[in-house]
Design a protein that fits this description.
3-stranded antiparallel sheet, 6-stranded antiparallel sheet, about 550 residues, alpha+beta
C-alpha cells in the first residue's frame, strides 16, 4: 500500500515518507496526523512565524514524533532545518516542497483509513513485521538510520559483560571519568591553569565578537573554552613521537613494549614503550600513564593523555565535559555549552572546536563506534561525527546493537539513581536535542576538510589521517595580463565566486577555491537578515583570522 501511494503521488519517491510507512499502523496514523498539522499550519498561515518553528523539547514533539521512524526525516524533507532549540522552517524554504511531502503523507494516510473503518487499533502485543523496526526510545544509545526499539520488558541495570572490546571500554571508562570529580585533584589542576590570563583574553575576544555580530548567543564560557583549548595545546601539553634520550638528548627509535614496574602501574600505565638510543645503546622508558594526576606532572603524551588531562581541566573550570572514545583509535572531549544548548566537540591535540566531521571527512577515518562518558551518563554519539550513516552501520559488527543499547541504558539508570528529579529531566531534554542533531543532514564545513595536524608527518600518514591531496591555489598571470602588467581579481561575497577581471572576467566558484592558504574561517549566510559574512568556524568563533592569496 505504501509503495503504491508513494509511486502514484508525484512521480518521485520520498525516502522519509517510505521510512514513516514502515511503522505499525497505529504509530503511522498518530505521527502522520501531527505531521499534517505542522504542514497545514504553515500552508494556511505562511506569514505567521509561530507556525514556522517547533520546539525540540516540546512534549508532543519529543514523545509522539521524535521516537518514530522517519517522522523527523519527513520534517527535514519538507524543508525544516535544525536550530539550537527548535526546528525551523526558514523563509527561504520551498513551500512547494512542503506541499509535496505533505500530500504524500496525506495520500498514504487516507489510503490506510479508507481500508480500515477509520479507527486503526493495534493490540499492545502486536510486533512489527520481520525486517521492520520499532520506534526508538529516548535514551543514551540511538541509531538515526536504522533506529531499533527496546524490549517490552522493563530494563534492569545490567552488569557490563566484557565479551567484546566495546563492552570492556564501557566497563573501564564509566569508572575512569569519576576521577575528574575528585576535588583534591581539581585543586591541583587549577594550580596549573592561568585562569586570570585566559579570562582576560577571552573577554577581549568576546567583546570584539559581539561588535561584529550583536545578535549572536555567545557567552563568556564559550570563549573561555576556546582560550583553554588553545593554551593547552600551545603552552601546556606536548606531543610525543619518540622521546629524547635521557643520557645524550638525541632522538630515539621505538622498539617492543616493556613490562610496567610498580610505580608505573600505580599511575595506570599498563603499557610502557621502549625508546632505544642507538648512540648510547640505552633503553628509555615511556610509560603511557592513564591517571590525570600524573599527567599534570609529565605534561606529555599522545591523544589518550591529551584528552585525559584536558577533560580534567574542563571539569576543574566548571564545564560539563565528556571523555569521548573512538573505536578507530582516537579520543577527545565534548563540552556542553549552556548558551548554545548543545555539546561541542573539542580536540585538544588539534586545537579545534565544533568540527565533528573532521575525522571522517578530513582524516578519512572509517568510523563505527564513538562513545561519550561523563559522571552522569554514557551516550553513543557516533552519529554526531558522521555524514555517512549507512557506511557506519555496516561496520558496527563488534557487538549486537540491542546488547550495546541495553548495556548503556542500564549504566545510565544506575548512574542517575542519586540524581535529583530536575537533573534527570535536564539530561532527558538534552538527549532529545541530541537525537535531533544526530539525524539532521550534515554537510562538511571547510574547517573539517583538512587532515590531522598533531604528531609527526610519518605518524599521520601511517594512520591515514593526513590530507595529502589538498591543493593550494596559485594564480599564474596569463599572456594578456603579462602584456598589460595588470592583475585584477574580485570576490563577490553574495554570489560566492571570484571574477578575474583582467582575464576576460573568468569566474572561480567558491571563496576557498581561490585561496593559497586559510586558517579557521568559513562563509556564513544569515538568512534572517539577508546578509552574508566571513567568520571563523562555529557561532562562537566570530573573529576572522588569516586569509592568504598568492600570485606567482
Amino acid at each position: 500500500m505504501a509503495a503504491a501511494a508513494l509511486g502514484n503521488a508525484s512521480g518521485s519517491v520520498s525516502p522519509a515518507v517510505a521510512e514513516l510507512c514502515q511503522n505499525t499502523p497505529e504509530t503511522f496514523l498518530e505521527a502522520s496526523k501531527l505531521l499534517l498539522t505542522y504542514a497545514d499550519n504553515i500552508l494556511r498561515n505562511p506569514n505567521d512565524e509561530k507556525y514556522r518553528s517547533i520546539r525540540i523539547g516540546n512534549t508532543t514533539f519529543s514523545t509522539r514524533l521524535l521516537p518514530v521512524r522517519g517522522a523527523v526525516e519527513c520534517l527535514f524533507e519538507m524543508g525544516f532545518e535544525e536550530g539550537e532549540t527548535h526546528l525551523i522552517f526558514p523563509k527561504k524554504a520551498s513551500v512547494e516542497q512542503l506541499q509535496k511531502i505533505r500530500d504524500l503523507i496525506a495520500i498514504e494516510r487516507s489510503s490506510r483509513l479508507d481500508g480500515s473503518d477509520k479507527s486503526y487499533k493495534v493490540e499492545s502485543s502486536q510486533q512489527p513485521a520481520p525486517g521492520t523496526t520499532q520506534s526508538s526510545t529516548l535514551n543514551g544509545s540511538q541509531y538515526p538510520v536504522n533506529r531499533q526499539g527496546q524490549s517490552s520488558h522493563p530494563l534492569s541495570a545490567p552488569k557490563v559483560i566484557a565479551d567484546s572490546a566495546i563492552l570492556k571500554v564501557l566497563q573501564s571508562n564509566i569508572q575512569h571519568v569519576l576521577l575528574y570529580e575528585d576535588p583534591v585533584l581539581q585543586e591541583k589542576a587549577l594550580a596549573c591553569i592561568p585562569v586570570k590570563e585566559l579570562k582576560r583574553k577571552s573577554q577581549e575576544k568576546l567583546s570584539r565578537a559581539r561588535k561584529l555580530d550583536k545578535g549572536s548567543n555567545i557567552s563568556d564560557e564559550d570563549f573561555l573554552l576556546l582560550e583553554l583549548l588553545h593554551w593547552f595545546k600551545e603552552e601546556f601539553f606536548q606531543w610525543v613521537n619518540n622521546v629524547l634520550c635521557s643520557k645524550c638528548g638525541r632522538e630515539t627509535r621505538s622498539r617492543e613494549e616493556l613490562l610496567p614496574n610498580d610505580d608505573e602501574l600505580k599511575w595506570g600505565a599498563n603499557s610502557v614503550e621502549d625508546h632505544y638510543c642507538d648512540i648510547c645503546q640505552f633503553s628509555n622508558r615511556f610509560p603511557r600513564y592513564n591517571n590525570p594526576e600524573k599527567l599534570l606532572e609529565t605534561k606529555c603524551g599522545r591523544c589518550g593523555e591529551w584528552a585525559n588531562c584536558f577533560t580534567l581541566f574542563c571539569r576543574t573550570l566548571g564545564f560539563e565535559a565528556r571523555y569521548v572514545w573512538d573505536y578507530t583509535d582516537h579520543v577527545w572531549t565534548e563540552v556542553y555549552s549552556p548558551s548554545q544548548q548543545r555539546w561541542l566537540h573539542c580536540d585538544a591535540c588539534e586545537d579545534v572546536c565544533d568540527k565533528p566531521l573532521l575525522y571522517e571527512i578530513g582524516w578519512g577515518k572509517k568510523l563505527s563506534y564513538i562513545i561519550a562518558f561523563s559522571k552522569d551518563e554514557v551516550v553513543d554519539v557516533t552519529w554526531r561525527y558522521s555524514c555517512k550513516h549507512e557506511e557506519v552501520i555496516s561496520r558496527r559488527t563488534e557487538v549486537k546493537e540491542d546488547v550495546l543499547r541495553e548495556t548503556i541504558n542500564g549504566i545510565n539508570k544506575q548512574r542517575q539513581l542519586s540524581l535529583s528529579e530536575n537533573r534527570r529531566k535536564e539530561l532527558l531534554q538534552r538527549i532529545i536535542v541530541e537525537l535531533v542533531e544526530f539525524i539532521s543532514p550534515k554537510i562538511p564545513k571547510p574547517g573539517e576538510l583538512g587532515g590531522r595536524v598533531s604528531g609527526s608527518v610519518a605518524w599521520r600518514v601511517a594512520r591515514g589521517e593526513m590530507d595529502l591531496e589538498r591543493k593550494e591555489t596559485l594564480f599564474v598571470p596569463s599572456e594578456n595580463e603579462k602584456i598589460s602588467k595588470h592583475f585584477h581579481l574580485c570576490y563577490n561575497i553574495v554570489k560566492n565566486h571570484y571574477v578575474r577581471v583582467s582575464n576576460n572576467n573568468q569566474t572561480i566558484s567558491g571563496w576557498e577555491n581561490g585561496l593559497w592558504k586559510m586558517e579557521s574561517i568559513f562563509r556564513k549566510v544569515e538568512t534572517d537578515w539577508n546578509m552574508i559574512k566571513i567568520f571563523t568556524p562555529m557561532k562562537i568563533f566570530l573573529v576572522p583570522l588569516k586569509l592568504f592569496w598568492k600570485q606567482s
